[in-house]
User: Fold these one by one.
Assistant:
Number 1:
Amino acid sequence: MKIKENIAISESGFVFDSNTGDSYHLNTTAQIIMKFMKEDKDEDEIQELIMEEYDVDTDTLNLAYYDFLTMLTQFKLSENE
Amino acid sequence: MMKKKIFEKPIITKINAGVPDKFGMQNQIKAITHIDQVAIKDIIAEYGSPVFVISEQTMEETYETALQAFSTRYPKVQFAWSYKTNYLNAVCRKYHQLGSWAEVVSGFEYHKALSNGVEPNKIIFNGPDKSDEDLLLAIENKSLIHIDHFEELYTILKLANTTENKPKVAIRVNMDTGVYPMWDRFGFNYENGDAWNAINRLMLSKKVDFMGLHTHIGTYIMVGWAYGNAAKKLADLAVKIEKKFNHYIKYIDMGGGFASKNTLKGAFLPGTDTCPSFDDYAESITNALIGSDINPEHMPTLFLETGRALIDDAGYLLGSIIGNKRLTSGRASTILDIGVNILFTSFWYDHLLYPAEETSNYTEDTTVYGPLCMNIDVIRESLPFPNMKKGQHVVIKRIGAYNMTQWMQFITHRPAIVMIDKEGKTHLVRKRETNESIVNEELVPDYLQ
Ligand SMILES: Cc1ncc(COP(=O)(O)O)c(C=O)c1O
């Protein structure tokens, strides 16, 4: 899954969808994940990088990560590769 | 090794320009970790999840506040605990200890009150369904019988012929108080003359002690003045009785119905902002009685059968997260081990739900489901709630009224009920059900053995 081309992400955690005009706010963890996704890192890599920096077990991260991806799909911000 | 940072669940929220959230943008939810200094995790560890908790401290404080509101405004005030609201023996006995009489509406409740040590002449017997045996016992015990309909009135007059004891009776009156829908199915109507008619039949029979007038205008009444209107009408009847029969009634019973601070479903503002206080209700009722034409030498005692407003705040329901699910609409949802079968009042109220431990500051609009395999099992359709993990605990506040009497046993055992005393000690006051306690009531016909 990757972030659509037309999605802009600001340094302060704002997301703008130029197709719809909708904007969104991200918390810090979501910002990190979106940034890595924009850099075309794959899921395993992203999860590993997060686990290096944050105190979180695999199950909790997995649940949170897939829930976040569901939200991206829901908001039509992502597309399948 | 460097200490790792605390993990926050990743969250993306849509910004809706111009449509601020009802309560502003900040939705941080504070955790409730303790009830009366007792840690919630300790209660659940000892008594299981879910579990009901009753705070004796809160019961007492609320009762004192209510009593204070009325007794500073009126010379003679007597509360009678509405058994149906919560008839756990521990709860009833606490109210009796505080000075409450008992208000019951069935033979079952009447016998419960007797076994809780209430003197029979301090039991008010209400309701449409009193059997002849119940009535006879109540007559012989000198309990106060509140008559609901003409059939009952004639039954009592007939029973009066069979015993030495004069029945002590009042009639329940219903009336237009300005609040709708009007509860006209209980008691005798004021406006159409039924109430006056019933009074005349009883007084002229000379077979009963006519003690008082009763009304219960409804429940969760959100305006004090409705009680003022009701009290005025009962006072008018009292004055008519005085004039025609030279008889002074002993009491006026205003029933229950004061709103607790819960928020009704669909209400825009929380109940804490909109519901009258005990002082508001007391002001309306006592003004109407004091301002009436009742002979000041014979002011009747004011009885109150307050239920939910006394006990709701003292009750908590603790539970645990079973799992989380993202609905196909994108909405967050969480599943609790608390179903609507044990939280009956969730059909009327948007109950307050809190995490029982510190969680992330980020909240999401969440639907909260119970564990029953049924679509109606929704505890909250929508509330801002943090993401919580399986096994973490939650608290539902202000649930002391009706849930512990109207609960249904369904697919599993009903939970234990624990009382926290004023010293912060917990006491089991109702055991969690077991397979045996439920199946014991069943019988299997021989041919299916
Ligand atoms: C006769 C009577 N009295 C008192 C009550 C208690 O009412 P509430 O819990 O609304 O105070 C009820 C409740 O239905 C009732 O029927």
Number 2:
Amino acid sequence: MPQEKDRPEEIDVQDQTPPDPADTTADRPRRLVVVGAGMVAHRLVEALLQRDTTGAFTVTVLGEEEHPPYDRVGLTSFFAGRDAEQLALGDPALWDDDRVDLVLGSRVTGLDRAARTVTTATGQVHRYDELVLATGSSAFVPPVAGADLPGVFVYRTLDDVARLQRWVRDRAEQHDRPLRGAVVGGGLLGLEAAGALQSMGVHSTVVEFAPRLMAVQVDEAGGHALQRIITRLGIEVRTSTATTAITAGPDGAVAAMTFSDGSSTDVDVVVVAAGIRPRDELARAAGLAVGPRGGLVVDDACRSEDPHVSAVGEVACIRGATLGLVAPGYTMAEILTDRLLGGQATFPGADTSTKLKLLGVDVASFGDAFAATPGALEVVYADPAAGVYKKLVLSDDAEVLLGGILVGDASAYASLRPMVGRRLGVDPAAFLLPEGAAAGPAGLELPDEAVVCSCNNVTAGAVRCAVSEQGACDLAAVKGCTRAGTSCGSCLPSVKKLMTTELEKSGLTVSRALCEHFEQTRAELFEIVRVTRLTTFSEIISRHGRGRGCDICKPVVASVLASLGGGHILAGEQAALQDTNDHVMANLQKDGSYSVVPRIPGGEVTAEGLIAIGEVARDFGLYTKITGGQRIDLFGVRLEQLPAVWRRLVAAGFESGHAYGKSLRTVKSCVGSTWCRYGVQDSVGLAVALELRYRGLRSPHKLKLGVSGCARECAEARGKDVGVIATEQGWNLYVGGNGGATPRHAQLLAADLDNDTLVRTVDRFLMYYVRTADRLQRTAAWLEELDGGLDHVREVVVEDALGIGADLEQAMAAHVDGYADEWAAVLADPEQLRKFTAFVNAPDHVDESLQYVPERGQIRPATPSERTGGAVLIAGAELEVRR
Amino acid sequence: MSLDAAPESLLAVCRLTDLVPERGAAALVDGEQVALFRMVDDEVLAVQQLDPYSGANVMSRGIVGTRGEAWTVASPMYKQVFDLRTGECLDTQGREPRRLRTWPVRCRDGVVLLARGPREG
Ligand SMILES: Cc1cc2nc3c(=O)[nH]c(=O)nc-3n(C[C@H](O)[C@H](O)[C@H](O)COP(=O)(O)OP(=O)(O)OC[C@H]3O[C@@H](n4cnc5c(N)ncnc54)[C@H](O)[C@@H]3O)c2cc1C
Ligand code: SF4
């Protein structure tokens, strides 16, 4: 239909005749319209754009929410500080593709199958060749009086949780007492919501109509185990209870709830998480068949009775049921992609296995969890004291694994789930006993066709193939090739194990060697040096390495020795290990001159201090610039001038700022409660204290801290390795942020700490990082690589699960006691000063290759053409150099 | 301080003790900048001070080490690694290979002597 080519993208097509079906086979790309921009829509678009190599489709995605598709499964982490950007799914570049148009804030209200158009609430009309409904579900709110009062929330979208958070914050400010909350519904969502309330300091009750928690996923014994653990966490649980009414207080907001047994309780906030309903309203209005409990009925190809309308995700009723999990939705997206591109894929049936961490408690359920198979046997391990319940369901001959339930410790999930439907070959008890559950019993080998990552449907064979054929040799590469572990991450232990075994098989060992001189990683070297107490590089390399080192391992050993209290970084043999920045305690610039940064703790500086720095800059003719870390950088210092510059700075009371080191740089702060109208704590005071505490600390990479005086976050503390943000009650501590090429927001480690607890926690965190991170690994990458990630670090530094808290604190105390200004020490040591000479055989000669030209009232290095082209050059200032 | 040691056309540059083991120092030889390195066994090696990749006179400030059997220095600027004996670039960090000039060095009675006239390594 050539005349259609000139049609604008969106027009009123009311009076047009329906497009000719033959049109779909024409050469122009077919128009795919996706309604809903949720998790499954994202997967569909990602898969389609990747596989549609001939440009068969253009895609329009119409999403009602204002955010690009985000990780709804991880919604609760919003309360730990993950924002919309961090929750966003996949590579944002996907939406830059010319073939796709993502329209947000656009709710579809009408579907005209005859005209093949959809209409949005704002009246835009989109014509489609193929339509996909990926509208998900909405929260089900039971018909209880008062469910629409202010203070009653549902728990489904980012906007829902943002509103909930705002309400709790505002109410907490109004009432000067801990808040009370209730969650209606004791399923997966209800417990997620209870966790969110708890993280905001709301004392809450979970009200469940059924006789146990998570009735869909776990059996009675499992539900009771879960209830015991959750009650122990301080959350009240009422099962077999119906909510009969929610009532308002004098201000019209929610104030109390009454229950079926006649009792009632006071509440400041209620979350309703009583189930979900598929958003099939468009399909219903268009006369398409829906399932008995809702959902657009589709076949195994995800097609509805209208061949141009498909459905994927929670809105699809497939094989007679809707599925409230993301993995089957992803499978549908893959199948529909294949079908759209002419393939024959069919829905293989849903895997409803789940593994969750609710309130820090593991819950997993997989396969035939309720032993519905005739003759099925159950093997149970329960340890009520430890809060653990595990059950395996086996075939009648106890050979084949059918399913299971794990509560309290689900570490065996990753190795068990792929074995469903297979002969275990080992004693099932081995999976249930506390030791060795995670790795699975020795000798267990997954068959190639076993699915290890159910979110992305990746088999053991695909992981093996990524290693053996595609050359992936680390976890990141395997994730990249196969997508295993890129959604919920619960399969990563298995994937890692498969990868390592495969690498070993192909003769490749996973090399974690630092360089050709040391087989060890930095963390291993750290342990060796800590335990053996060796103090020189020569001893360390002769006993634990080979050769004489290089620019990789020497600075690492120097850093390790420094972290372990090895005295001055330039003492004795250590001087030869440092790269030039640490060696001359300044920052090398492109022309061979250096820059100098005096420490200005917390960015707080007196007028005298500023004048002293200004005078040094003026007298030595230096270029000055304010740094992002709230201090002043002085550029253009020649090697031999460094001691003279520092003599002046030290005399004015300044110390080394360690801008040259892999060490603490700055603690950036906002002005805080001292001056700011909004501040709730003294952020500058804390920043100064932290900077003075950790100054000089050597670490695997540079370390930056930040402190903000209130939630407005003017110090950008969450862009730092350690960020502290003031709350009414104390301080929230965030870790693992950084700026640079891959910016990361720090994540919440602990909330509402008092000063002492804060300092103790930061002590432990930093020391644990210093001990265990790899060379040049910032805290963000370290947290990502670490088994267990942030949760593990929380266990170690907040809960002291490894019992090393005191040891870490002691190590930090030793650092604090041992601190001395490096520059003051060098100035007092004639031996150290010898190296600050331009030429050994001509100490008074100035390096003439350093030449500068004026620019905006200061100097800058001359370019090569300026040197040869006779521009006005400024030689370095000839201030007398005292020795 | 530059004394001419005429018989072998060697130039006395400094004392061995002016140099720190496994670190470099710059010297001026006939107006040209030379980087001297003292090894653990007190052998001294000399290469050009000019870093051919950055154009800055900084080679003496690099970290000394080994690659296999070879003594090396890594440029402090962009981390290329050079063989101190031959001047050959062993790790170009993805750039095209460039060499360093080298000078033969003798040590006599604790004095470091450089053969005049640079030689291509
Ligand atoms: C707190 C929470 C925790 C969860 N935890 C887990 C878990 O641990 N494991 C698990 O497997 N699943 C979990 N889920 C479920 C999982 O998030 C869903 O299964 C998944 O998001 C379904 O994807 P979907 O694309 O079908 O729907 P959604 O992700 O809900 O996306 C549908 C989108 O369509 C939009 N939309 C609806 N109607 C229209 C319209 N008419 N026009 C335009 N846009 C429209 C909606 O606004 C929404 O953005 C959890 C869900 C929540 C809320
Ligand atoms: S973060 Fe808060 S206290 Fe600090 S400057 Fe901003 S508004 Fe003021």
Number 3:
Amino acid sequence: MARVNNWQLGREMSYWYPEARPQKQFAAVFDTNKCIACQTCTLACKTTWTSGKGQEYMLWNNVETKPYGFYPLAWDLNLLEMLGGQEWDETGERPVYQGSTIFESAPAGERVLGWRPEDQDYSYPNVGEDDCAGQVDGGASLAASHDMAWFYYLARICNHCTYPACLASCPRGSIYKRPEDGIVLVDQGRCRGYQECVRGCPYKKVFYNAMTGTSEKCIACFPKMETGIQPQCFVNCIGKIRMAGYLNTPENAREDNPLDYLVHIKKVALPLFPQFGLEPNVYYIPPVHVPTSFTSQMFGPGVGKAIETYRSAATDSDLAGLLGLFGSSERVMTRWRRIGETVTGLDDDGNVLVNVPLKEPVHIRPAYDKLYQVTRSNCP
Amino acid sequence: MGPNQFFNSDNKDRDTIMLAALTGNVGKIGGNIGSYAGNYRTALFNGCPQYINENPFDIELDPTKPARPKAYWTAESAHYYNHEDHPLKVGNTILTGKTHMPCPTKSLWFANANSILGNVKWHYNQVFNALPKIEMIAVNEWWWSTSCEWADVVFGVDSWAELKHPDMTASVTNPFLIVFPRTPIERIFNTIGDIEVYSLVASKLAELTGDQRFNDYWKFVNENNTDVYLQRILDNSTNTKGYNFSELHAKALEGIPALMNSRTTPKNVGYDQLTDSTPWYTKSGRLEFYREEDEFIDAGENLPVHREPVDSTFLEPNIIIAPPHEALRPKGPEDYGAKRDDLSCETRCGRNVVYTWEEARKTAHPLVKDGFKFIFHTPKYRHGSHTTPIDTDMVAILFGPFGDIYRHDKRSPFVTEGYVDINPTDAKELGINDGDYVWIDPDPEDRPFRGWQNDKRNYEVARMMCRARYYPGTPRGVTRMWFNMYAATPGSQQGAKEREDGLAKNPRTNYQAMFRSGSHQSATRGWLKPTWMTDSLVRKGMFGQGIGKGFAPDIHCPTGAPREAFVKISKAEPGGIDGKGLWRPVDLGIRPRNESDAMKRYLAGEFMKRK
Ligand code: SF4
Ligand code: SF4
């Protein structure tokens, strides 16, 4: 075991291998407030990558309703229960996780604390859809904060973790993290199907294929990312909740990197179960309407502030503008800027990929179009 | 999602729009009230008559010139076809206006519209009682829908992804002019374009009759140049004139959309009236909230009032609830020659009885005494739109909570199945567990179909069975089932019995049902509302600025109220695999009202501690 720095925990932790950060790290921000659970992302991925034999049950991308949705069944609940006390010390300048991670609480002889789902746990991938916490028996009405009855949608892919548990668990070293972009892959030639990765990944995002006898997982559509195009589940997202890019460490954060801005500078997007200790790289803007007791358990102690910041987008043109860039281009926008009413997504070389207006413009056309000699009407 | 498809929604909409008007919210960006209704996209292309009404006796063959439309057809509402070709008769009085129902149905030919037959309300009445009287049913489809199961002729046509003839559309809720370009994608099956089906039938008619005009009418289809028809529509539509189709097509190939040039973007209905003082499409040209027509006075709806739903209510159905008012003088049942206490389904549609709320609250739905307890709603769902079915396994496993690609439970008709959302307390009272199979029985008077009592074989197909899901988000007494599921057919039941895998898949057609028996349309029926069938209401025409009176399809005609019923629910089989024990998620303690201790801690966020 090595000692590595996990900034999400505010401390060092133990990991099977020494710290070796990639040149750049694939990362993403998902805005849970905009997801409608249409599952278009799930299908975009499934039809692209997992329509083969042995892959029938696999959803590299899935969307589940929280709190009652799970794919596989009880995936996070089981591990939270196994992990025990998950305490955060918030008395200092920034929160420090004082509980133990899945690496630190690994049973003797094992590399991580994990569990392996049974075959049947992958059934009912949309269980819990739209089920709310609390029961609406009648006489209910909606209020701004749905303390009485709430649910939200959690879209999930592999987190391409900085400290992948799948990688750490593999006794053959078949899983590797690409130094050039941090994408985590299973070497299909080396894998012998021991499924230690399936057991080890707390997010249950590695899947065993009984036809090939090997394990497989989300590849962050690396052939697309390599050419500067966002993955399938991003570009097909109906709610425009997603943005893919590359994330720096907090000390190297750049204002003009969209992900750095949201994660490090505004701190409006938070990791999924940071307490597991993997430094996962998909960041979530937490739902604003859910009791923070639940969302803090899932996204860590920054939830309250993140929601406050998110709500301030109404008066924060930079934040609002950047959120408006989500889903505006297929291309990976590694840089961004706002000048006045225009928000721009750019690539590393400063080429403009897309311009988006800060506010959706209203066009009012003349009632009579002289050029084409026709009336323009809202009730044609 | 269908809130405009309830029996009382004309009243409801008049009320809410009146509120918007009184508060100055009509015609302003961010104002207005509306629910999505896809039908109204047709009107967005008011140049459509160029194509659908081209005069068949005066056909324009020059691609650069416009057609000279002259309509030789009149529309007919499908709701009478869906009502065994009967108008609404209450007592001795016909309450369907003369403009509404010109003739009975002889044949049907429709394209990609499963709701006309397979997914029609009161489906089993339609197929067992109405269809035998129809001479021909033809369907253009790209998947084998329930409609295909009941059709005489099925034409396999291209899906949207395979279109070789371009097309275009628009939506009432977004600003885009959407062009489907010719696709380079190869056809998966041996299909042809939808439009070619018609042109080929026409060329056969030309051959049989020797009349060349049958061919001329489809000239630009035959020449693979439907762009001509599309351009004519563009040139003659208020908000698309000025567009060139080939330019739009080139852009569409690159994924670049075009805007509809409506008066405002985003489109904001009422802007023209408010800003330019153009008249509304009413008799007076103003927004009218009092209805002075005799039919409305007779119905007690001259003032905006509340009507209880026609079936989905715990109270006496379809009563008007209003305090006494001198203007409210409806014709009661006796005026129509009916008995006051006659609540049979037909009579109920035209029953105008006014109660105060104090009186109304003491009433009950006539079926309550027989153990009926549940309002049953069938709105639309995110995983299947309108008539679009759920027949690919990848989509199906995400359709609701019962998807299981490996079908561990061999009772499942498919890799997913129909289910009803029920309040957990209600279910518990009935001894129904989360995930159990249940029977859902509607009003036995005429559902699932008239005469079911003496038709055991068809009743076995039509009686609704599905899974029950504990759904904490629904109030007590209110249940919900989604609208988009393939119904059980004699063939699907045969498959379930004969096939080794037990799939409810027709061995002869490969039709795949999502129910072991019945459908969400086992409980619904066609309800006809008199105020939707008047001859006197002044309303907008389908295309352009003209106004007219009486029937106009999708503008002034019944909705049939396809989303409501009042039902009895009873347990059929346990939810565990092959009928043994509990449905697995219940067993694991992760379901509402069946939470394990760990799940309770999870919900309360107790796994995290803060200092
Ligand atoms: S989410 Fe799981 S599969 Fe993905 S990198 Fe992290 S540990 Fe590995
Ligand atoms: S496509 Fe986007 S909006 Fe739809 S479920 Fe996926 S993440 Fe949510």
